[in-house]
Write a structure and sequence with these properties.
heterodimer, A: about 260 residues, alpha/beta, Rossmann fold, 4-stranded antiparallel beta sheet, 10 strands, about 35% helix, about 25% strand, disordered C terminus, B: about 350 residues, mainly alpha, globular, binds adenosine-5'-triphosphate, binds magnesium ion
């Protein structure tokens, strides 16, 4: 079953076309990579899907339902949660309070529109679920530390942990490995690919191409706001348009 | 929610506040009897402004510093003033709640444009909304009495032997309403919704992304704070017996903002401390009344530049210092138990 379907979305900022025409379909349970050079429109695409920006044209379907133009909080309640490229945490709250806050929609049964078909451990209490997530993301030792005191890499991990607390069906991560050291990188990459076991579909934007190639089932490559290739790691690395985009074989250089 | 659930889910801090309030109430009731009539009036005005500033603090929890608060309170005042001076006057209680409701409704209507703005723009847009409202008080002469305002506003009928026409009697009315509002708002502050409002203020984007309706959690405190302002406005119209547009101008607004800055807004009691400080300055320098706003301004600048956190931080630090002394014995005995 297709969990996310993006049909010809575009976004203009005045004269600048940040996203020209992007379409993709992500089947449930997949780990999908979204890569492209700097400024190619990845983050804008995230904003368009998650409701933080309204597309100039095109539509987004989540679990078969149109979500274009809905507010991000309504989209999140349906089970689509994204993280931010610039780490976003509640700086003055402790690590535990951050993850606790992530459970917001589950504190009041009425506001949770998702039936929660993730395979995350069922929550009997928000406290238990918080502890489980902290444990799972290796944050238990810092549970009572204010988020602002954590090193940058750990703040990134915390932002993923908070997103997990929403119990999303589709988790969209914008450069989750940025600012991590190599050991942290491989640990977090492993965690991300492990989320599949909990029935969570993942859309991953990441500049660390090696990690993307190793954990993604399928990769979508965009450049200048347009999709230029899509396929498995092998197919992508051999694709001429991708090689050109990444090695910068542009007319400007030839002249 | 059953009563039992409510009691067991009640935060400890609220229980302490409730006990403190019950202990303090007899003192607050006895207070006017120790005062001259001049100080009794000061006390009533202080209590009215405490209601104003408690409402103001609710608004600041969503991260915005409104400048329309006093003008909004004016809606409560004018509602009471107009309806109680009709040929067949309305009952005070009806106008009190109607006035508060109208203040809230106004906030709800301006929320849509005003809450789209942040920081300085929020300050400016609420300032504009407040000025527009004040102009309306001046221009709609037929019902508001224009710049002269409305006079001969009666006070409510007394009961239980309390005569609201006396300053002390009216003080009891304001005190009762202030205490109810204080308890309700304090409970609200500690509630899940209260915490969520502060989370939205701390990081709106993140809050929205985890499914929090940030618009609702910004609108609610804005409207709630304005309702509280409406209560204060209605009561002040009754207390003074006359109102005019100048009563809802920038001096009082500045006093509230200054109280919030000098006292701090991270705790519930911060702005009240700030108000107490400003009122004390005002009374000490009563002979130089025209200099008082200058002293307030200097205090604001002092807090902003050198003493960030305001009076509440001073109190919290003092409490932190006292804690080991007060609880020393308890700590020692528990240490012994472990040993
Ligand atoms: N709010 C905005 N207003 C105007 N232009 C914008 C806005 N947001 C993004 N852009 C522009 O849109 C283009 C795409 O930006 P986007 O952030 O989506 O790229 P990206 O692929 O995420 O890049 P990076 O890898 O550096 O994160 C860029 O040229 C950027 O400057
Ligand atoms: Mg980006």
């Amino acid at each position: 079953m297709t969990i996310l379907e993006v049909n010809n979305i575009a976004k203009r900022f005045g004269k600048l076309v940040a996203v020209k025409d992007i379409s993709m379909a992500i089947p449930e349970g997949q780990i999908r990579g979204l890569i492209g050079p700097n400024g190619s429109g990845k983050t804008t695409t995230f904003h368009l899907i998650s409701g933080f920006l309204k597309p100039t044209s095109g539509e987004v379907l989540f679990k078969g339902q149109p979500i274009t133009g809905k507010t991000p909080n309504r989209i999140a309640k349906r089970g689509l949660v994204r993280t931010f490229q610039l780490t976003s945490v509640y700086r003055d709250m402790s690590v535990r309070q951050n993850v606790h806050m992530g459970h917001h929609i589950h504190a009041n049964k009425k506001s949770a529109e998702i039936s929660n078909n993730t395979k995350l451990p069922s929550i009997s209490s928000i406290e238990d679920s918080t502890s489980w997530i902290l444990e799972h993301m290796n944050l238990s030792e810092e549970a009572d530390t204010p988020a602002r005191m954590l090193p940058a890499g750990m703040q990134r991990v915390l932002s993923i942990a908070t997103a997990l607390a929403v119990r999303p069906n589709l988790l969209m991560l914008d450069e989750p490995l940025a600012g991590l050291n190599p050991t942290e990188k491989s640990n977090v990459a492993q965690k991300i690919s492990g989320l599949r076991d909990y029935g969570i579909t993942i859309l991953l934007v990441e500049h660390d191409v090696r990690s993307v190639l190793s954990i993604c089932d399928k990769i979508t490559v965009i450049n200048f706001g347009e999709k230029i290739a899509e396929g498995t790691a092998d197919e992508i690395t051999k694709h001429p348009a991708v090689i050109e985009a990444y090695l910068g074989k542009s007319e400007g250089h030839d002249a | 929610m059953t009563i039992l659930q409510f009691i067991t889910s009640t935060p400890k801090r609220f229980v302490y506040a409730l006990i403190g309030t019950i202990i303090a109430t007899p003192l607050l009731v006895a207070l006017p009897h120790a005062l001259t009539s001049y100080w009794q009036s000061v006390l009533v005005i202080f209590a009215l402004n405490t209601i104003m500033v408690m409402g103001y603090r609710v608004i600041t929890t969503m991260g915005g510093w409104s400048f329309s608060h006093v003008a909004t309170a004016g809606l409560g005042a004018y509602t009471t003033a107009i309806l109680m001076t009709l040929e067949t006057p309305w009952s005070f209680w009806a106008t009190l709640f109607l006035g508060a409701g109208i203040s809230g409704l106004f906030a709800l209507i301006i929320a849509y444009p005003v809450l789209r703005t942040r920081h300085y723009y929020f300050f400016l847009s609420t300032f504009a909304a407040g000025e527009a409202l004040r102009q309306a008080y001046i221009q709609f002469k037929g019902i508001t009495g224009g710049s002269f305002g409305i006079s001969f506003i009666p006070r409510p009928e007394g009961f239980w032997g309390i005569d609201f026409n006396t300053t002390t009697g009216f003080y009891y009315l304001v005190l009762a309403i202030a205490l109810i509002i204080w308890l309700l708002l304090y409970r609200f502050d500690l509630s899940r919704v209260g915490r969520t409002i502060k989370a939205v203020a701390a990081n709106e984007e993140l809050s929205e992304s985890i499914g929090i309706n940030t618009w609702g959690h910004r609108t609610l405190p804005f409207v709630l704070g304005s309702v509280i302002a409406g209560f204060a406005g209605a009561l002040s119209a009754n207390f003074n017996g006359a109102i005019n547009p100048l009563d809802f101008g920038s001096i009082l607004m500045f006093k509230l903002v200054a109280a919030a800055i000098v006292g701090g807004v991270s705790t519930f009691f911060g702005p009240i401390l700030g108000l107490l400080y400003l009122t004390a300055l005002e009374e000490i320098f009563r002979a130089f009344a025209e200099w008082v706003p200058l002293l307030w301004g200097a205090s604001v600048i002092a807090v902003l530049m050198i003493w960030s956190g305001g009076l509440e931080m001073a109190v919290l630090k003092l409490l932190a210092l006292l804690r080991p002394i007060l609880f020393n014995r308890a700590k020692n005995s528990s240490a012994k138990n472990i040993g």
